[in-house]
Design brief:
Chain B: It holds the Pfam family WD40. The complex is a heterodimer of chains A (575) and B (384). Chain A is an all-alpha fold. In chain A, 78% of the residues lie in helices and 1% in strands. Chain A has helices spanning 2-10, 12-15, 19-24, 29-42, 48-62, 79-200, 228-277, 279-283, 289-308, 316-350, 354-392, 397-465, 473-489, 492-502, 518-530, 552-562, 568-573, and one strand at 208-211. Chain B has a domain at 9-130: YVTN repeat-like/Quinoprotein amine dehydrogenase (Methylamine Dehydrogenase, Chain H). The two termini of chain B are 30 Å apart. Classes of the chains: A mainly alpha (575), B mainly beta (384). Chains A and B meet through helix 6, strand 1 and helix 7 of A and strand 8 of B.
Chain lengths: 575, 384
């Protein structure tokens, strides 16, 4: 509104206090006060004309008829015009105030609206937030429910499948049962028919066998009566087969066990060596390895002990000791490898990955392989322990008796063998004895002959001592051997007599032809001393050259010398 | 491989004597004995009726011919063709007949498994064994022929009787913890008896020779169980083939499973797979994958050849009818090689009737309905 703006411009000085007097404007009493205040500053006696023209301008600019015309020089104002003007101005002012009021009221209204709207906005925002949160919550629940639904569906599918499978099983079993039932029913019917037939059929065909002749048993033995003894024998045989089977199995298992034990020992040694070789390298590292060192020293002792005790590993404690020590070693090895692994991984993070990967992998492979082997060994050992326990449990009396017989068997066999050797030796001795006797007989014959010969020779010698017997010397010497031969070929009666005489074990007495004089004795004694009597190994080869003196004792001695290698038995039985 | 001329036989009764010198075949009611090397007919015997079963005695001196319909058993001697023996079971009927391991006794199972009659050819004596069980394999002789194990059923309970074959003396008689005993088998060393339940329950029980229960093995419950069982020749392992198409091997020390083999439809892990491709389009392919086979070459006739398939190979599986009893799934045949290195198994409904190893363990013979396949195995051991 241009009027109001002009009013505002004109009254620029009054703008400052325009706001507060608005409230008091309805009170007309204060109006004059204002005006008088304003008038006092605007117009003075000096500038009346200027003021008048100014006001005229202003009024004309407001659109009101002019207040003052410049027609006369009179300074008198047209009062009517001025009053009208004033009245107009007052109306304008009132109108302006009214509009102002209304605007203020509007403004108040709008501000309150704004407030209200702001409040609603915040409320709605809050509501929105809330509903968003609710929404997300609901979405989450929906998702969970969907998952649950899926899992339930899969469960349902599984259950359905299982139900289907069970139904199939039931169906197959039912068909099997039906089949069996039908078969049984058919058989039953056949039985019934047969029974009927048998009841009706009068002539009954009996069972019979018609053999041309009995044939022998397959193994050729006669069949035995069924007695308790045969029954016991059958039982015995049955248990024997079972026992031999168990024996064989146990032997195999013992061998396997021994091998596995060796493998475990080997593994343990290897592990100990690996761990102990690390010791100097380990020393420089962390202090916790000191414990390991102490333990590894113990291990070495253990290794030595176990190698000595290898034979004693058959008892439970030693076995447990072995397995425990292996477990211990294994744990240490594992920790060591793990440490290496961690070190390697640390190094890997710093360096490139190429270098350490391969040895690590191979180590891991080695570890896995070792682990597997150890597990297998452990299982084997466990099963074998169980079996050994089973086998070492007490058996029946029968088996005990069988076993006891087994122990004796070996000794019996040995005894039998010894008997055999003894028998053979006895036979050999018999033969030797026979030979001895024969030789002795021969010897006695020869001796006899020789004696006779000597006797004759002595006789001749004796006779030759006399001056008349020179011519008869040489034929005598010749006749010595002839005598021997003749003595041997003489009638065996003499020999037999001799033999019967000498058969007794008493010291032999050889009949001498003559030797009564002392001279004869001396000469006779001298002769056998001079002759060579060679010591013989066997009594069989007593030389004929040995000439015997008349003394039986000496002969006996000689005989003994020659026979000193034969056993004492033979001495007694010889001549 | 050379083949002789075709000889007639009936009932698939054609057996070589245990000493390997003679071949016996049955043609209707006649028994023909030929020399193996010359294939000349040595003896010809005539029985009273069509022969249902024929068996050589263990010492190859006698042949047993059983005629189930008539209830008769006739025994013929090779040394004395004039010798005859006829066993008539009478009205009680005959269902099966077999020799005892010593070759001098005949065990006849009567109709309805009422009893087993033991006839002695040496003394004409008769013994009876009551309540034998009618099952897949109810009677087994130990390998050395000294013991016989027989499954019995009394009062709805299963028992096992162990007899001494010498004089048929009952050594042990004990109850087994099975629901319905299906079979029993001695270990080759004669010390352990494996007893298994019917296919409705997976249970294998191991008894010692003196009747003690050593161990029980059960792999799973409810599904169909054991189909076939086989001992390894060293008695160290027991292979159990089941309806779930797996073979489980248990060891003789702990009687626990040590290995498990599967028969997946897609073969990936074996070394080589041979596929027979026939030029004639009518017959389909026949293939087999064996465990532990390394490489090999096979002989073939002119009409088919083998090609090596690249792994993985999909084996055509025919799904059996689940509503029928005794379905044709699962491991039905197991065969160990005599050196304990290999195990051959047949899984599923393949038309393979028998699997046998050659005694030198370098080849495996597969007999199908119309085919004979001989697989050689080469090991990768380096010589010297």
């Amino acid at each position: 509104m241009p009027e109001s703006s002009l009013v505002k411009d004109g009254r620029s000085s009054s703008v400052e206090y325009g706001a507060s007097p608005l409230r008091q404007f309805s009170q007309s009493s204060l109006l004059l006060h204002r005006n008088s205040y304003m008038l006092g500053t605007f117009c003075t006696e000096h500038n009346v004309q200027q003021c008048l023209s100014h006001i005229n301008q202003e009024i004309s600019s407001l659109g009101l008829p002019p207040v003052w015309t410049e027609s006369g020089n009179s300074s008198e104002l047209n009062i009517v015009a001025v009053l009208n003007c004033m009245y107009d101005l007052i109306q304008l002012h009132r109108r302006g105030l009214r509009t102002l009021e209304s605007m203020e009221v509007e403004q108040l209204k709008s501000s309150s609206n704004i407030d209200h709207l702001q409040l609603t906005i915040t409320r709605l925002k809050e509501q929105l937030e809330l509903s968003k949160r609710e929404n997300t919550g609901l979405l989450e629940r929906e998702r969970q429910l969907q998952l649950k639904a899926k899992s339930l569906q899969s469960c349902l599918k599984n259950e359905k499948e299982e139900v289907q499978k069970l139904q199939n099983i039931i169906a197959s079993r039912a068909s099997q049962y039906n089949h069996e039932m039908k078969r049984k029913e058919r058989e039953f019917n056949k039985l019934k028919e047969r029974l009927n037939q048998l009841l009706v059929d009068k002539k009954e065909k009996k069972q019979a066998i018609d053999v041309l002749n009995n044939i022998g048993r397959a193994d050729g033995k006669r069949s035995l009566w069924k007695t308790e003894k045969t029954e016991a024998k059958h039982e015995g045989e049955m248990y024997k087969t079972l026992l031999s089977d168990y024996d064989a199995r146990q032997r195999e298992l013992v061998l396997e066990n021994a091998e596995l034990r060796k493998v475990l020992q080997q593994m343990k040694k290897d592990m100990v060596s690996i761990l102990s070789s690390r010791k100097p390298a380990v020393k420089s590292d962390k202090p916790e390895h000191s414990g390991v060192q102490a333990r590894s020293e113990e291990e070495e002792e253990e290794v030595f002990d176990s190698s000595k005790e290898s034979v004693e590993l058959y008892c439970v404690h030693a076995r447990e000791k072995l397995t425990n020590s292996i477990r211990l070693q294994w744990r240490r090895l594992k920790s060591h490898v793990e440490r290496l692994d961690s070190q390697a991984s640390l190094v890997q993070m710093v360096e490139s990955k190429d270098t350490d990967a391969v040895p690590q992998e191979t180590q891991e492979e080695e570890m896995d392989r070792l682990k597997l082997e150890i597990q297998q060994c452990k299982d084997f050992i466990q099963t074998q322990q169980q079996l050994l326990q089973q086998l070492s449990s007490p058996c029946d009396e029968e088996t005990a008796s069988l076993l006891s017989n087994c122990y004796m068997l070996q000794e019996k066999e040995r005894l039998g063998e010894e008997w055999k050797t003894l028998e053979e030796q006895r036979k050999i001795f018999e033969r030797e004895r026979k030979n001895f006797t024969e030789a002795a007989i021969r010897l006695s014959h020869e001796r006899k002959a020789f004696e006779e010969d000597r006797a004759t020779w002595l006789k001749h010698q004796f006779l030759n001592l006399s001056p008349f017997a020179d011519s008869k010397k040489t034929p005598l010497l010749k006749s010595k051997s002839a005598f021997l031969i003749s003595a041997e070929t003489e009638a065996p009666e003499k020999l037999i007599k001799c033999h019967s005489d000498t058969a007794s074990p008493t010291p032999r007495c050889v009949p001498l032809a003559s030797a009564s004089t002392a001279d004869l004795y001396r000469t006779l004694c001298l002769i056998p001393e001079n002759s060579s009597v060679q010591p013989k190994t066997n009594g069989e080869h007593v030389e004929e050259s040995s000439m015997f003196c008349g003394d039986v004792f000496v002969q006996h001695q000689q005989w003994e010398h020659s026979e000193d290698h034969t056993p004492s038995q033979e001495k007694n039985s010889s001549i | 491989m050379n083949f002789s001329e075709v000889f007639k036989q009936s009932n698939q009764l054609c057996k070589v004597s245990p000493d390997g010198k003679y071949l016996a075949t049955c043609v209707q009611y006649r028994l023909v004995v030929r020399d193996v090397s010359t294939l000349q007919i040595m003896h010809l015997y005539t029985c009273l009726d069509q022969i249902s079963h024929m068996e050589w005695s263990s010492d190859s001196l006698f042949i047993l011919c059983a005629m189930y319909k008539r209830g008769l058993v006739q025994v013929w001697s090779l040394e004395q063709p004039d010798w005859h023996c006829k066993i008539d079971e009478g009205s009680i009927g005959l269902v099966s007949s077999r020799w005892s391991p010593d070759g001098r006794h005949i065990l006849n199972t009567t109709e309805f498994h009422l009893r087993i009659t033991v006839w002695s050819l040496c003394t004409k004596a008769v013994s009876y064994i009551k309540y034998p069980k009618a099952c897949q394999k109810g009677i087994d002789f130990s390998r050395d022929g000294s013991y016989m194990a027989l499954a019995e059923r009394r009062d709805c309970k299963d028992f096992v009787s162990i007899f001494v074959c010498d004089d048929w003396h009952l050594l042990r008689h004990f109850e087994t913890e099975t629901q319905d005993l299906a079979g029993l088998e001695w270990s080759p060393n004669g010390c352990v008896l494996a007893v298994w339940d019917s296919c409705l329950e997976y249970k294998v029980l191991l008894y010692s020779l003196d009747g003690r229960l050593l161990s029980t093995y059960s792999a799973y419950e409810w599904s169909l169980g054991v189909k076939s069982v086989s001992w390894s020749p060293s008695s160290q392992f027991l292979a159990i083939g089941s309806y779930d198409e797996k073979v489980r091997i248990i060891n003789h020390i702990t009687w626990k499973k040590i290995a498990q083999f599967e028969h997946p439809a897609t073969v990936e892990s074996t070394k080589t797979v041979y596929k027979e491709v026939e030029r004639r389009p009518a017959v389909g392919t026949d293939e087999m994958s064996l465990h532990n086979i390394t490489t090999g070459s096979t002989l073939f006739n002119t009409q088919s050849k083998y090609e090596i398939c690249s792994l993985p190979v999909q084996i055509p599986v025919v799904k059996p009818d689940p509503d029928r009893a005794n379905p044709k799934i699962g491991v039905s045949v197991l065969a160990f090689s005599s050196d304990n290195h290999y195990l051959a198994t047949k899984n599923g409904g393949f038309q393979v009737h028998s699997l046998n190893w050659h005694c030198s363990d370098n080849s495996l013979i597969l007999l199908g309905k119309e085919q004979l396949c001989l697989c050689y195995m080469e090991t990768d051991e380096e010589d010297k």
